[in-house]
Amino acid sequence: MKRTTIKDLAEMLHISTSTVSRALKDHPDISNSVKLKVREAAETFNYVPNDFAINFRKKSSKVIGLIVPSISMFFIPSIIKGISSVLNKKGYHFFILSSEDSYEIERENIQTCINSRVDGILISLTKETKDFKHFEKMNEMEVPVVIFDKIIPQDLYDSVIFDNEKNAELSAKKLIQHGCKKILAIFGDESLGITQTRKESFLNTLQSIPEIQCKTIYCESPESVKEKLDIILEYDQFDGFFAMSDETLAGLHSSLVKKKLDTTHIKVVAISEGTLPKYLDESYEYQINDGCEMGMIAASALISRIQKKEEEDVILVPKTFYI
Q1: CATH number of 61-162+292-322: 3.40.50.720, 3.40.50.2300, 1.10.357.10, 3.30.460.10?
Q2: DSSP string computed for 81-99
Q3: Can you give the pLDDT at residue 7?
C-alpha cells in the first residue's frame, strides 16, 4: 500500500499542504475545525510523518552509526545496551555494522555511514587498523566520531577506554594475595595494543615476588584457549590462572571442567564484563570492565560533540575518557 503523504491529505481535503502541515503541528493560525478534519483524515489513512524528510530539512538525520570489529556474545551486548540507553533518551536511532576485524570492511562501513547521512559515528577499531586515512571523508564532512575500547594512539578524536594497566595490576595482586606460586596467564590477540598493555602491567606486578613462576600464552578465541590448554594441562600444573577477557575465561573454564580440576585448590582471576563469571564458578574473582558504562560514556561524548558542532567559536579538544 502506498504511503500517505501530506500532499495526499491536502488533495483529499482540498486545502494546501502548508495548511495540513500546520494543522498537524497544532498551529494557532489554523482553526479547530480544520485541525479536526486533518487529524481524522490522517488517522483514517494511516498518515505517518516522514522523519527523514523532517530531519533533512533540519540538517540532522537523528541517526548514529555504530561500527564494531565483530558481533559476539561477549561484551558487545553490554556496550549496545549502554549506547541505546543514552541515544533513546536524546531522540536518536542507531544502526550496527560489523567490520569482521577487517580494515577494508571497516572502510566500507564508514562509507555506509556517510551515505546514510548519520549525525555521528561510534567506532571500535579492527586489529588491522593502523591509521586514520579512511576517516578523511568523515573529517571533510565534519561528522563527529568517538572511538571506544579498541583504539590506536591518536589525538584527533574523543576516545573511551578501560584503565587496562590498573585492571591487570589489580588482577595480578589478587593472585599474589592468594599465595599462588605458579600461574598461567592467558592473553588475547597478540597484535592488539590492549593485549600488550595488560600483559606488561600484569607481568611487571608479578616481578615484585621473585618466587612466582608465570607462563603466558596468546589465544584469539575460546576455542584457541581450549586447544592450547588441552596440551599444556597434560604435562603442567598451576595453582593460579589469569584470563584477560571473558572470551579467554570461557575457554579456560571449559578446559578446567574437562580436566576435572578442583577450583577450590586453584585461583582463577579474570578481567570481565561481570556477568559471565557468576554463571561459571562463584569462586572466580574478576576486575569489572563495565561495557554498559563504556557505551553510555561513548554515546554521551558523541552527543556532546554533535551539539557543540553548531556552536560558533568553540574549539573542541579531543578527550580520553578512562573507566
Answers
A1: 3.40.50.2300
A2: HHHHHHHHHTT-EEEEEE-
A3: 85
